[in-house]
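TODO from last week: model Polyketide cyclase.
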Amino acid sequence: MGEYVYATAAVHVPAPPEQVFALVTDWPRHREWMFMTTARQTGADRVEAYTGIWPVGFLDVMTITAWEPPTLVRMRHIGRLVRGEGVIRVQAREGGSRVIWGERLRPPFGPLGRALWPLARPVAVMLARRSLRKLGRLLSA
């Protein structure tokens, strides 16, 4: 098995790409749609997101590496626990947009993390889909 693990989720959102991208990249509003996550921009190209309920959780530190409104934001995870790359793509579709969330990560805990990924991946994908569906509900309200 390789050094990285992968997960992708996609949903249809009943809003145009401009509205979807604006909400996806409104970091303080992540708490409204992203599962157990609060986020904030801490620099021109830096975002920090905390997932969990304090004190049980983790800080995900990211650098924005590509910014192409309203279709793409790419992040590099540079924190102690989460490392790798993430991307959110927004594609115009009839009746709204298709939102694709992909992650290419180095799992924590080395070989043990990679060995556990087949069990963790379905949960990660389910939570990503849940979050994206909630994003869609916010945009259709």
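Done. The helical segments are 17-24, 30-33, 110-140.
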